[in-house]
Amino acid sequence: MRRLTWSIHNHSDSPMKLLVARLPDTPRQSVVGLTQEPAPYGETDDAWLVEVPPGERASMRAEVLVHQLKPERLSPELTEGERARFTASTTLVPLSDTIRAEAARLAEGLETPREIARAFFDELVSDRYRYTWPSGDLGAEAMQRDKAGDCGAYAFLFVAWCRALGIPARTVFGTWATGRLQAHAWAEFHVDGTGWLPVDPSFGWLTAHQRWPARGREVVDRNFEDLPGERIAFSHDAEHPLPDELAHVPEAGKAEPDSRRNGRTGWDGTMVMAGRHVRWGAESLAGRVPYLQPAYPIYEDGNADKRVTLGSWLVETPRTRLIATVGYLLSALAVLLLPFLVKESANPVAAVIGVGAVVAFEVWLIASRRTVLLPTAILLALLGFMGQNLLT
């Protein structure tokens, strides 16, 4: 069982409305005990509507059971509405002539949806493509043209190729199922009689091209239908319709050619999506919300705050919660022992540095809820140093 805690802060002087993803139950996850604050005042098929006053915070908390695929929870057949939705041309996944032509070329001679989807996966994990973050334009056409993008761009292009040949497909926005802000995106395609099958082309590319440790092809292939690592899905597909009350939110305009506005630092509050320059929180993407990971903020007066992005979340397991508790106790013990160590140690400066390192490590451990071997070894060495000082 994973504990997901998410929150977002309205830093501005304007009210903020949120579309917050309604975490789905899937063949690989079950959501229980979900609470939302403040309480939603409305909902759509995919999201709750929440209003956050200036200076206040919205939050969500859920227990998510991440499990192995349960065949009985698959959807072997789609409704007509689902099939229409997941084969449609959209802004980020356009079924343009260039997309259709490339999909047809890659699928030449193949017949079944699985064979075709596998050909698309093999193309995206090849040397002809390159994973890069931050990405420039996040649309499928830009990804096919530039052959470089992040996890979302990889997923968009895979979905676009599938839809171009009539195979229902969708993106999945979510997170790795441990740690803080481990955002990720992948894809799914549908096979009649079987259901939705997952594909992670960006992680497949990273697995295939990392230099150390060397990975065999079978490990790369796990990213097709049998995904490595535990994940939590926030939402399915991109470009969710705005509710009627927010239909007046302006549409984003065209971006400059070769625009590269995303950056690791100094983000200006905009993103380039399918050739459009989207001001995050103040504009829509052709009248739709770009995507829910897990929420999209909207300032109706257009006074968007660039500090507000996806919010912040933490996914904890029973093990990481235990690690955090031990971290608190060790930090408290180190602080309590500090005066005695300084007094008794032959080298007080070394004692202070050693204890300070222990406390700093424990603060990091508490904040990140991660388990790593090297820092643990360092911690044990420092504790040994403290014990030696106490015994001599």
**E-strand count:** 20
State mean pLDDT (0 to 100 scale).
83
Q: Helices and strands, in N-to-C order?
A: EEEEEEHHHEHEHEEEEHHEEEEEEEEHHH
CATH topology term of the largest domain: C8orf32 fold
Low-confidence stretches: 371-375
Rounded to the nearest angstrom, the radius of gyration is 24 Å
Through-space gap between termini: 46 Å
Inertia-based shape: globular
Helix content, binned percent: 25-40%
Count of all domains:
2
Structure in a nutshell:
The chain crosses the membrane at residues 322-342, 348-365, 372-391. By secondary structure, the protein is an alpha+beta fold.
Q: What does this protein structure show overall?
A:
Helix content is 33%, strand content 25%. The protein is an alpha+beta fold and 392 residues long. The chain folds into two domains: 72-292, C8orf32 fold (Roll); 318-391. The chain is globular. The relative contact order is 0.14. Mean pLDDT is 83; it is low at 371-375. Keywords: Membrane, Transmembrane, Transmembrane helix. Residues 143-203 form the Transglutaminase-like domain. This is Transglutaminase domain-containing protein. The chain crosses the membrane at residues 322-342, 348-365, 372-391.
